[in-house]
Amino acid sequence: AARLCEAGKLDLDVPVQKYVPEFPQKQFDGQDVTITSRMILSHLSGIRHYEKDAKKVKEETEKAKRLLKPPGKDGESASSSEKVNEVSTDQESKSKDSSQARRKKEFEHEEYYLKDNFENVIKSLDLF
């Protein structure tokens, strides 16, 4: 959001419906209220936090994986499996080359994205 603001693509103080027209107009005590992007980003919009049912989410995820996974082919010839092995070995060598190139360019970036999870903000500040 900060990058979008800097680029002039996001105005934090306009109603969120400008960017998400499907977002419903909210009411409080019978009066329409304006919810802005700033309010959502700072958790002041009054939109409640909710937790999804973990079991249901897991079931849906597994179902989606089954649908995406192609069924196994029976009676596959040896020559076709050898071709698959050759292709996978070829892809592995290409991915090694590209990962080495990525490592070389790692420090050329202006910004870095960390995938680490921290228990709290204080622990994340230990990076600095």
From TrEMBL:
Residues 54-76, 91-106 have a biased composition (Basic and acidic residues). SUPFAM superfamilies: beta-lactamase/transpeptidase-like. InterPro entries: Beta-lactam-related, Beta-lactam/transpept-like, Mito_Ser_Protease_LACTB. It holds the Pfam family Beta-lactamase. Residues 2-66 form the Beta-lactamase-related domain. Gene3D superfamilies: DD-peptidase/beta-lactamase superfamily. Residues 77-90 have a biased composition (Polar residues). It comes from Nothobranchius pienaari. GO terms for biological process: proteolysis; regulation of lipid metabolic process. Residues 54-106 are annotated as: Disordered. It comes from the Eukaryota. GO terms for molecular function: peptidase activity. The lineage of its organism: Eukaryota, Metazoa, Chordata, Craniata, Vertebrata. This is Lactamase, beta. One of its GO terms (cellular component) is mitochondrion.
